[in-house]
UniProtKB/TrEMBL annotation, chain A:
This is Extracellular solute-binding protein. The lineage of its organism: Bacteria, Pseudomonadati, Pseudomonadota, Alphaproteobacteria, Acetobacterales. It comes from the Bacteria. Residues 1-30 form the signal peptide. PANTHER family: SPERMIDINE/PUTRESCINE-BINDING PERIPLASMIC PROTEIN, SPERMIDINE_PUTRESCINE-BINDING PERIPLASMIC PROTEIN. It comes from Belnapia mucosa.
Length: 418, 300
């Protein structure tokens, strides 16, 4: 992407806006602008959000994009190197016991009661959704501000304030598959020998494998996100058999690899992330984010605050989070196919036809455009999987850290070596 | 600097050379010896999901070699991983040595003019001005199922099905490595060859040696130091690699580097440190054997 020129100009404008805002709001700027160091994966770190925050709040966000592994590593080993942590909920099982995150005070979050019931009750439209794995409802609350364990019910102290979440499934090339795909079992179907792929991120890869194993009827897991050793052995055995039989063309580790595998025709069915499917489609190559009858593997991310944060930075962080929930950012993220925490405010910031397409699963009344103006979906198309209720309501399990994580990682290495 | 005579300590040892060596010694101590020691120490620590526990435990080594004594059920993960890494390493070493030697031989003995020789040598190094990741990734669109090579093979009727072994296989990994590392052999071998006294070759010819005999009895023995140095480069680079094997092997081929990377990403630093210590030991052993066979310092 070529951003050199616009950035320069943008900086200039930001500077000018900062000066103007400084004159208008001396109370905020009297002590100099606050800068918040924002550590997270690049998923939510958009230049658009950064500009808007600067404009609306006068707060400068310093994006520090790292891999999801590094998010955990930073939070556990260097909590002083950040002011805002954009973490996924499964990471909390590693981060919270370190005591490096504070419980966020619900009284300081204005829209706390508006946060999606996915997080507060584990429900969508009054219906319980799958909670296997590290479901956000299990790790959203702390018993006290300094808690190192999770509370069972709702409390005043929140671990993360949700930013984005989504339901993941398999991506397929409908032109190459040539028939309807309805089940996770197809991932291991010999029909697609040498044309399938899963991700080489052990904790997520094994859950996709578990969805397939269960769909094939080989085992019913009590909790796919927290397997026993015997279940790990079984799952890895099935995967190893498939690998030795040449089922997998390759494993992928990052977003771009998954896009290239699919776009170049190396694979026709693989675990995938929603924006990667969009990326393949934007090259003019047909790709479907296929809803499957066994349901989705979901994930969720949110903002956490390091315990060391205090004073003006803490206030600024709460201001930023409140701003994030107030609609503009939510609409921004919804338009990319993610879901935002407070849907009611996001709806107000979206055009009705956008809301109908992204959230209601209705055919697009007009072309759906990306933030940069390129057409993502033509008028008349329907979102894969349909509405928010249809997609999030069909969640089967959540990205997770297992109790037997060590063992699982060793078994995964064994599988790669097999 | 003043040119006063060096101070003499009571024992009569000059201080100046020690002072002169001190900066390098300090740098090595700080950035080489200390991290290495730290790795060795951490490899004995215990760990949990979210913390390192300073301790003296054999856990990391025990878990690494778990099941390795029982050969009845096939090789354990660690042995299999090392075997896979060593196998790739051997193939890459063989090809880079062959090509590196051939290229150097051509440059050193077949090109007559010095200007031409230097020009061609620079041409060899030109691809290395781009990032090695880019050089590696550019193979993907060539070798893929619908890539250039397969399209060519199918259109010319050599094959009727796209060839899957071209990519995400041992072949593609070795190909990328050879592409990346041949220069590391070419340079030291070329250097050794340029130092060979041409009169030796003439003498061999006068004594009635054939071209092959000259190559085998004169050129190769005299280029051994270059070959060993090049081999050390290649072996060290391949043994520790996880990016090339990962990308070109479709993440399906085991390598020690990958195992270490996975463990690091799951905050299992002590386990990764233990793997690193074993890997280091093995590589040092290989290098020790090679330098025992040929005394590089004497030959230089």
């Amino acid at each position: 992407m070529d951003t050199t020129l616009p950035t320069g100009r943008r900086r200039l404008l930001q500077g000018a806006a900062g000066i103007a805002a400084g004159l208008a709001a001396p109370a905020v700027h009297a002590q100099g602008a606050v800068t918040l160091r924002y550590v997270g994966t690049a998923v939510n770190q958009h230049a658009g959000i950064k500009e808007k925050v600067k404009e609306d709040l006068g707060i400068t966000l310093e994006y520090i994009p790292v891999t999801s592994d590094d998010v955990v590593r930073r939070a556990v080993t260097q909590p002083n190197s950040l002011d805002i942590l954009d973490a996924e909920y499964w990471m909390l099982k590693k981060i919270i016991p370190s005591g490096n995150l504070m419980g966020m005070d619900a009284n300081r979050i204005k829209l706390v009661n508006e946060i999606s019931t996915v997080f507060t009750k584990g429900e969508v439209a009054g219906k319980k959704i799958g909670d296997q794995g590290t479901a956000p409802i299990k790790v959203s609350y702390l018993p006290t501000k300094d808690g190192k364990t999770f509370a069972t019910g709702q409390t005043q102290w929140l671990t993360l304030i949700p930013t984005t979440y989504n339901a993941d499934t398999l991506g397929i090339r409908p032109d190459r598959v040539g028939r309807p795909i309805e089940s996770w079992a197809e991932l291991l179907n010999p029909e697609f020998k040498g044309k399938a792929s899963i991700l080489n991120i052990p904790s997520i890869g094994i859950m996709d494998a578990a969805m397939a194993v269960e769909a094939m009827g080989r085992h019913k897991y009590a909790d796919k996100g927290n397997m026993t050793r015997a279940e790990i052995d079984l799952t890895m055995r099935v995967l190893t058999e498939a690998k030795r039989a040449g089922q997998f063309r390759a494993f992928w580790k990052d977003f771009n690899e998954s896009v290239n595998l699919m776009a170049s025709g190396e694979t026709v069915i693989q675990s995938m992330w929603s924006p990667a499917v969009t990326a393949v489609r934007s090259r003019g190559i047909p790709c479907t984010y296929q809803p499957l009858k066994e349901g989705y593997r979901a994930w969720a991310a949110g903002f956490g605050l390091p315990k060391t944060l205090s004073g003006r930075k803490l206030d600024a962080a709460y201001d930023f989070i409140n701003w994030f929930l107030s609609g503009w950012a939510g609409a921004f993220l919804n338009r990319q196919g993610y879901y935002s925490a407070v849907l009611s405010t996001a709806q107000k910031s979206m055009q009705p036809f956008e809301w109908d397409f992204w959230m209601m699963g209705k055919p697009a009344a007009q072309d759906i455009k990306a933030p940069d103006g390129t057409v993502m979906e033509k008028a008349g198309s329907v979102r894969d999987g349909g509405s928010f209720e249809a997609r999030m309501g069909a969640v089967a399990c959540w990205n997770a850290v297992m109790d037997e994580n060590d063992y699982m990682v060793r078994k995964w290495n064994e599988f790669i070596a097999a | 600097m003043s040119s006063s005579p060096p101070d003499r300590r009571p024992m009569g040892r000059p201080v100046a050379p020690l002072l002169q060596a001190a900066p390098l010694a300090l740098v090595l101590l700080l950035f080489f010896v200390f991290p290495l020691l730290a790795t060795a120490v951490v490899s004995l620590w215990n760990y949990t999901e979210y913390s390192l526990v300073p301790d003296v435990t054999q856990r990391n080594y025990v878990e690494m070699f778990e099941g390795c004594s029982n050969l009845g059920e096939g090789l354990c993960t660690t042995f299999r991983t090392y075997l896979s890494t060593l196998r790739l390493c051997a193939m890459v070493w063989a090809f880079t040595t062959l090509f590196g030697f051939a290229i150097s031989y051509f440059l050193a003995f077949h090109i007559r003019s010095d200007t031409m020789r230097m020009a061609l040598f620079l041409v060899c190094t030109a691809p290395f001005l781009t990032s090695n990741v880019i050089r590696m990734i550019s193979w993907l669109p060539l070798l893929g199922r619908e890539g250039v090579v397969n399209q060519f093979l199918i259109s010319t009727g050599v094959v009727d099905q796209p060839q899957d072994w071209l990519l995400f296989s041992d072949f593609s990994v070795v190909l990328a490595f050879v592409h990346l590392y041949t220069l590391f052999v070419t340079v030291p071998v070329f250097n050794s060859m340029m130092r060979i006294d041409r009169r030796l070759l003439e003498a061999a010819q006068d004594a009635g040696a054939s071209g092959w005999q000259t190559l085998w009895h004169v050129v190769i023995p005299l280029t051994k130091p270059g070959l060993v140095i090049g081999s050390i480069f290649v072996i060290v680079l391949v043994m520790g690699d996880f990016v090339t094997i990962g990308v070109m092997g479709g993440q399906q081929i085991a390598s020690i580097g990958k195992v270490i990377q996975v463990q690091m990403s799951y905050l299992q630093f002590p386990a990764a440190a233990a793997q690193a210590v074993v890997l280091l030991g093995l590589v040092l052993l290989v290098i020790a054997v090679m330098t025992r066979l040929i005394d590089i310092r004497r030959e230089l």
